[in-house]
Amino acid sequence: MSGQDPKFVKGAFAKIADRYVITNHVLSMGTDILWRRKVGRIVSRWNPKHVLDVATGTGDLALEIQKRCPGARVLGTDFCPEMLAHATEGGVQETQVEDAMNLSFEDYTFDVVTAAFGLRNMENWQKALREMGRVIKPGGHLLVLDFSQPSGILKKPYGLYLNKILPKVAGLLTGQGGAYQYLAGTIGEFPYGEKMIELFKNADFRDCVCQPLSGGIASIYTGVKT
Fold first, then answer.
1. Long-range contacts of 164-169 (CB under 8 A, 24+ apart)
2. pTM of the prediction?
3. CB atoms within 10 A of CB 110
4. Hey, which residues does 148 pair with through a beta bridge?
5. CB neighbours (10 Å) of residue 22?
6. Residue 154: what pLDDT?
7. Does some domain include residue 119?
8. Residues 27, 184, 90, CA angle at the centre, nearest 5°?
9. Which structural domain, as residue segments, surrounds residue 103?
10. Which pLDDT does position 185 carry in this prediction?
11. Helices within the chain (DSSP H only)
């Protein structure tokens, strides 16, 4: 399946790197922090020894996993050096510039691979899942946290917020409203629910589960590598 323009995404994130974290917290009213804490609790139950957090950005999820899994080696990677610099400065113990579409690691390297709000911005979602799966040990876990779309009463007001309000507020905070207009648009194109589960299965994962968060605004997807 298709994804996003990697050159545009890389340039957009380089421009918003300095204000990325505070902008996310404002736009989600702090809910993104709670979502990552939930992910941290899930990962800790798997008791991993070696975790890869792809598209780590400023390292928010990697830091949460470090806290929850003190005995694990946690590596945060991103293809945007400007974002990765903030992750290192923020306390992520290991960081490395990597393109998630073409990871440099050997097969079956990691117990767990995570991606928070990163898969949506990759060039090809199916290929990205397969590449992440390649570096996971058989029986290891993949976890993706990303935006989805609520149904029912939340659908219309969320669409209004996403497409009209969010880019304007983000533009005021970062001076890059165009980047957030683009990123907001990616949510409408991104597969979620059963469509994402199907992508997981096509990438050779089993026991795939979708857990909607906050009425379906975001979802956690997990799968076990066959």
1. 166/27, 169/26, 169/27
2. 0.86
3. 25
4. none
5. 11
6. 81
7. yes
8. 50
9. 6-225
10. 66
11. 6-16, 20-28, 31-45, 60-68, 81-90, 125-134, 155-160, 166-174, 177-189, 194-202
Contact predicate 25/200, CB 8 Å: no
22: its two tokens: 């505070």
With tokens 């907001």, the residue in question is: 184
| Mean pLDDT, each 10-residue run in order, the chain (226 residues) | 60 54 55 93 98 95 98 96 91 97 98 94 94 98 92 80 70 61 72 97 98 93 98
- The span from the CA of 192 to the CA of 212, in Å, is 10
Distance set, CA 170 to CA 22, 99, 167, 186 (Å):
10, 26, 5, 15
For residue 42, give the CATH number of its domain.
3.40.50.150
Amino acid 226 reads: T
* The two structure tokens encoding residue 202: 């096509």
Task: Tell me the C-alpha distance between 2 and 127, whole Å.
Answer: 9
Q: What is the pLDDT of residue 184?
A: 67
Give the tokens for residue 126: 């199916």
Beta bridge partners of 223: 142
How many domains, in total, are found in the chain?
1
Instruction: For residues 206 and 51, give the distance between their C-alpha atoms in angstroms, rounded to a whole number.
Output: 19
Does residue 1 sit within a domain? no
**Which residue has 């669409």 as its token pair?**
159
Angle at CA 40, nearest 5°, toward 118 and 204? 55
